[in-house]
Amino acid sequence: MSQVLLVFPVPSEEQTKLVPPLAILYVGSYLERAGVSVSYIDLRIHSYDDLGKELEDVPLIVGVSSMTGIQIEGAIKVLEMSKEKAPEAVRVMGGVHPSLLPLETLSDPLVDFVVIGEGENTLLELFEFIAEGKTDFTKILGLAWKKRGGQISINANRPFMELADSCPPITEASRALYAYYPLGKVQVSRGCPYRCAFCYNLSFNRRKYRIKPLEVIDREIHTIMKFVPRIKHFTLLSDNVGRDVDRLLEMGKICSKYGFTFHTAIRPEYINERLISELEGVCGSFLIGVESVVPRIRRMIYKDNDVEDTRRAAHLLKNSSIKMYYSFMTAFPDESREETIASMDFADELREIDPTSIITPFFLLTPFPGTELYEYALRRGFKKSANLKDWSQFALGKVSTPWIDPDNEYFTDLYQMSMLIYTDPKEYENNDFEKDFFGHFQRIAWDRWRARTFEFRREYELFKSYNRKFKQAGLINYEEEMQKAYSKSQTNNVD
Q1: Which of these, 327, 300, 332, 330, lies nearest to 195 by C-alpha position?
Q2: For residue 98, what are the contacts with CB-CB under 8 A and spacing of at least 6?
Q3: Distance in Å from the first CA to the final CA of the chain
Q4: Which of 69, 11, 14 is nearest to 461 (CA)?
Q5: Angle subtended at Cα 319 by Cα 231 and Cα 260, rounded to the nearest 5 degrees
Q6: Contact in structure between 4 and 31 (CB atoms under 8 Å)
Q7: Which ranges constitute the DSSP H helices of 322-456?
Q8: What is the pLDDT of residues 186-243, one digit of tens each?
Q9: 121 and 115 Cβ atoms separated by less than 8 Å
Q10: How do residues 99-117 score in pLDDT, each as one tens digit?
């Protein structure tokens, strides 16, 4: 029997590739080091039957992590099952969404506590209080809770933890999960000093940037490699990895020592010839956030760099082995079709500079809670969700802003087209049917991208349905049903 059960719900409808859920792995490892027994459920791997079996042992705490969006839907189901099968267990929500909207989250009767911000010390202290039978949680920093009678109390913020105290995100209890993850992942810093108006960091990390000591990063990677020696690629997770080029090069040396390549996100102004030269062969890929090329929009979101920085970086990197990913956003306030197409043109230019580079989907600007754009959206008439469940409909691929007419917009089609273009065909090679099915829709997406024709919803709904019913669910007996749907789609799309 585990004292704490940590659960990670499915984070998006599109995800078919698994990466380690650091949100629960770092917290769980920290608890285990303190002597707490922990079980882990990743609902991209486990079934709800697996969850039910864990709940039969009635853990003291059931903790579920969630970002804003569809992950909340899974979180609610976890909490419902916990209430039904283990009513004595304390139900806790953590993660970005409940941290930024603790009052609204605790208003749901399924939620007993909210951990605000970093979860390691707050959840450990909450566990100790509950294990000792204490009922006054006033002094636990970083905690929101319900007093007797239902009154909600939000305690003072907890100071940020020292990242030297971080534990490797793998233990004997969680190592079985890594059989499903094709890569490793470690967090190398927390927070960011920049001020992007769409980013959660301004509120969640209070714009404070903290680096994890290199020896701690080395220790975490070493531990993961010891448990899972097959791993040959890591993500170095950071919202601001390249600010100190020498530090990034030192992390590259750590990766080289263990014989794997890494991926990370970086601002383009940090990229120079020295960085490229010294990371050649060890850095597998970089991600650069372009968002938009329109000067008006870049000023609005406080991007604080120039499109020319990205163009320069693209030319520097085009002959290197480092693969480039460029991310874009659209559906900004009062964005015109001409402004959208300008960003599409720049995406094509980046592909022309380096044909191996990858453009991410054109995500719809989503004013997530805790961001400056969220406050702007409220001023423009955005109506925030009244309950926890409604927030599950909030997503990067859905219209959710008051400045866009949902009945007369093209941004959703662009997101859907670019999602199919971005998706690697290798993810859809389980059999000839799946390969043809995916290839058919990707070709349509490319044709409409080139023609700047924003029509793709019918095709995308079928693709998404396939992912939801078969790729994510792991089903295999799908040939007959999907062949019918595929044949119908081919008939509908004859030119």
Answers
A1: 300
A2: 66, 105, 111, 114, 115, 116, 144
A3: 60
A4: 14
A5: 10
A6: yes
A7: 337-353, 372-379, 411-422, 432-450
A8: 999 999 888 899 998 888 888 789 999 999 999 999 999 999 999 999 999 998 887 7
A9: no
A10: 999 999 999 999 999 999 9
